[in-house]
């Protein structure tokens, strides 16, 4: 059985054809999972945690405090004429319980170094990995490992990256094997035109080598690679009854890829040319964090260098995260000192990134929102308007439009349509920028999450047929 794998920066997915039917691989109840993996170290046994009356009172106190903060935030949003997305009681209780459990585990470890511990035997993936990291505050959370594949790596770091990619690919292979009822040993893996890299084309070559090596260790006998815009083109090809020239624009979490293709009809799809930009949705999250959140921690207010804040916002970059946590902020004035030191605590940069991502998504539907930063300082929050997000993402939009201008100059003819896909294509700002780049040409929107993996499944099925 040959499957298609979309090893994404933000989310990963897999699919294949069973007969003539496209079959998406499920990971639990989901059709994709966040590309994050958690390797726990030794932690106090969570089964020893009991919600005593004293601990229950602490939970309720946290909930009351959070509700009071929400009321204050809602009043401020109403005064501004904006919107405030209130968190449910179940969400407030979950976070309060997680905080109390984590504090209990920290106290227990300090009071009894020889307490019973358990070492997790298996890595956790996706949202489960993020939740585990936030709850335990120990171990290693690796987010968006794809973003690191093309950078200059010393031998030890390279081993770690191969190990992480191996776990993710093995997770996908085993899930597919269970669902399909047979061993999955071959795959077509999507790749961007240009990986994010510090070494140019050599970085992309290294990234493919790492994925190939990881796939072999993960149990794949053979893998091939297909550029992601070409995969999206194959997906779109299946929808077209007549032949046409089309432009494929795939805007993912880490990269933006474009392909000019001849698609549809009875002939095979033909990719004429591809272009790539090593920027995507994760850059929007970082830009929004830098614009709206980091000033609350002293960016452009204190003497702390700007690159410290960039390092804190770059949760997908392990070296930058380590560098940020090594910094000493004891000489920084308050309140910035306390906030920066709180951001250095385990899980805090991940929480900040999640808050930026949620704010980005919310501002796609409303004009104003409020972000709760109470995990850094009780009562801390910031109001964000859609205009703030427009300003924050302008550098990415400008880079993307420069790429699309290059495409316009180089394409071999005027396309009949523009096919837009990729997770970041959901953003109204991004969508409008693509439409403005190709005025008068119909724009067709594909499945933002599953367009690429569907095309990879087509390629996998054709490859399997060719070998029969």
From TrEMBL:
Keywords on record: ATP-binding, Nucleotide-binding
InterPro entries given in the database record: ATPase_NBD (IPR043129), Hsp_70_fam (IPR013126)
Pfam families on file: HSP70
SUPFAM superfamilies (UniProt xref): Actin-like ATPase domain
Parts of the chain that traverse the membrane: none
Full protein name: Chaperone protein
């Amino acid at each position: 059985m040959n499957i298609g794998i979309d090893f994404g920066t933000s989310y990963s997915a897999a699919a294949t054809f069973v007969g003539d039917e496209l079959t998406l691989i499920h990971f639990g109840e989901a059709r994709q999972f966040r590309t994050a993996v958690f390797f726990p170290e030794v932690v106090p046994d969570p089964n020893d945690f009991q919600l005593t009356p004293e601990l229950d009172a602490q939970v309720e106190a946290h909930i009351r405090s959070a509700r009071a903060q929400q009321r204050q935030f809602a009043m401020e949003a109403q005064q501004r004429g904006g919107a405030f997305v209130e968190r449910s009681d179940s969400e407030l209780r979950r976070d309060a319980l997680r905080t109390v459990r984590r504090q209990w585990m920290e106290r227990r470890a300090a009071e009894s170094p020889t307490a019973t511990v358990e070492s997790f035997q298996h890595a956790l993936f996706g949202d489960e990995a993020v939740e585990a990291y936030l709850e335990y505050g120990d171990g290693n959370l690796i987010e968006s490992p794809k973003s690191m594949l093309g950078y200059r790596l010393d031998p030890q770091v390279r081993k770690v990256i191969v190990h992480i990619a191996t776990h993710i690919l093995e997770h996908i292979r085993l899930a597919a094997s269970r669902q399909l009822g047979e061993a999955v040993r071959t795959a077509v893996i999507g790749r961007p035109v240009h990986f994010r890299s510090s070494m140019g084309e050599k970085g992309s070559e290294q990234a493919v080598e790492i994925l190939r090596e990881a796939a072999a260790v993960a149990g794949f006998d053979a893998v091939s690679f297909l550029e992601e815009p070409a995969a999206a083109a194959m997906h779109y090809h299946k929808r077209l009854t007549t032949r046409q020239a089309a432009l494929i624009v795939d805007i993912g979490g880490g990269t933006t890829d474009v392909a000019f293709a001849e698609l549809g009809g009875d002939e095979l799809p033909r990719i004429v040319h591809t272009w790539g930009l090593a920027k995507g949705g994760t850059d929007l999250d970082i830009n929004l964090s830098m614009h709206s959140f980091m000033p609350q921690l002293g960016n452009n207010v204190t003497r702390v260098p700007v690159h410290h804040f960039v390092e804190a916002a770059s949760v997908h970059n392990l070296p930058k995260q380590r560098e940020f946590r090594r910094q000493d902020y004891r000489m920084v004035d308050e309140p910035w000192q306390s906030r920066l030191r709180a951001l250095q605590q385990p899980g805090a940069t991940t929480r900040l990134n999640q808050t930026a991502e949620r704010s980005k998504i919310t501002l796609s539907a409303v004009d104003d929102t409020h972000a709760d930063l109470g995990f850094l300082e009780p009562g801390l929050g910031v109001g964000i308007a859609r205009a703030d997000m427009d300003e924050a993402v302008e550098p990415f939009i400008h880079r993307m439009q420069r790429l699309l201008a290059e495409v316009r100059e180089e394409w071999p003819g005027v396309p009949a349509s523009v096919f837009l896909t990729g997770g970041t294509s959901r953003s109204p700002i991004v969508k409008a920028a693509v439409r403005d780049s190709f005025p008068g040409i119909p724009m067709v929107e594909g499945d933002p999450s599953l367009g690429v993996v569907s095309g990879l499944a087509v390629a996998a099925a054709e490859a399997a047929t060719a070998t029969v």
